[in-house]
Structures are given as C-alpha cells and as structure tokens.
Amino acid sequence: MVQRRAEKKEADDGRTAAEKISADLRKQRERLLQELKKRRKREEGLTHKEVIDMIPRYLSDDLSDRELVAFLGHINGCRDCYEELETMFMVDRTIHYLDDGEDGSFDLTPELIRDMEHKLHRVQVNQMLRKFRAAAALFSFFMFSMAVLDFFGIFPISRFL
Ligand SMILES: [Zn+2]
C-alpha cells in the first residue's frame, strides 16, 4: 500500500512535457500490474478478507476439501490471518469447554495446530481415495474395453488365456 502510494507520487512528479508520455505509460503499466495481481490472487489463493470470513466455517468444519487447502495454504503464510484464526479458535473452544463443564485453563495453541494437521490429513486421505477411485475406474474401463474388443473379435484376448 505504501509502495503503491510512493509509485503514484512518483508518477505525479513526472509532469514535465517530456516526461508526460512516460508517466502515462507508467500509470498504464501500474494498472496492468494491479489487474494481474488481482487476477493471480483470485486464481492462486484467497484474500485476507475471504480467509477471515471462512474462519467460522473452518471451526464448524464446514469447508470443502478444496476450500480447506486454500484456507490452510493462506493461514500458513499469513501471520495476521493465523492470529485471527487462533483467537477465534480459542473463543470457540472455550465456549465449548464451558458448555461441557470442563475448565479451559490449558494451552490451546498446540490444539489448533493439531486441529489444522488433522483436517489437512483428512484432505490428503480424501485425495488419495479419489486417486485410487480414479485408478479403479480407469482399470474397469480398460477391462470393459478389452471385453468389448474380445467380444467383437477385434482383439480376441480370451484366445490367449
Ligand atoms: Zn491473510
């Protein structure tokens, strides 16, 4: 943000006739870079606001695998959002523990890490299952194709068995 303001100031300063064109070009380039940055953010990950908005759904375990991976990916590299998650996690857990009649006087940070690991692990298991299912589907398709080819005598594999 500060950097962007500095660049804008730089652009405003370059107002002599000779530099007007290059200033315009610079502005154009800056706009393009910003658009690219926005697009990249949309494709690669989530904005801080999106992550913050997802925290309640993370806590109630309502995120899809895809969302969870994007969410944790961002949390992993963003101190601010991690701290926000930590705070809300503690509030959430404290309320639950109070409801359950247990005292909440223990360190919840390792519990959050464990929770994140647990959820990520589940995503990995799901991904593995999906891969396995895809492989199984491919294999059955292959067997089916062989059976069809065999049936029509195009590739009579049963003759070799
Ligand atoms: Zn963030």
Question: Key features?
Answer:
2 domains; mainly alpha; 161 residues; flat; binds zinc ion
Please compute the radius of gyration using only Cα atoms: 27 Å
Helix/strand order: HHHHHH
User: What structural class do the secondary elements suggest?
Assistant: mainly alpha
Content of β-strand: under 5%
The average pLDDT is: 80
Percent range for helical residues?
A: over 70%
- Total DSSP helices: 6
Q: List how many beta strands DSSP finds.
A: 0
Largest sheet: none
Distance between the termini: 71 Å
Bound molecules: zinc ion
Number of domains: 2
Shape annotation: flat
What ranges have pLDDT less than 50 throughout 5 or more consecutive residues?
none
Q: Can you describe this structure in just a few lines?
A:
The chain is mainly alpha-helical. It is built from 6 helices and no strands. The protein binds zinc ion.
Written description of the protein model:
By secondary structure, the protein is mostly helical. The chain has 2 domains: 44 residues; 117 residues, no CATH class. 80% of the residues lie in helices and 0% in strands. The chain is built from 6 helices and no strands. α3 crosses α4. The chain is flat. The chain starts with a helix and ends in a 10-residue tail after the last helix. Bound molecules: zinc ion (ZN). Zinc ion (ZN) binds next to α3 and α5.
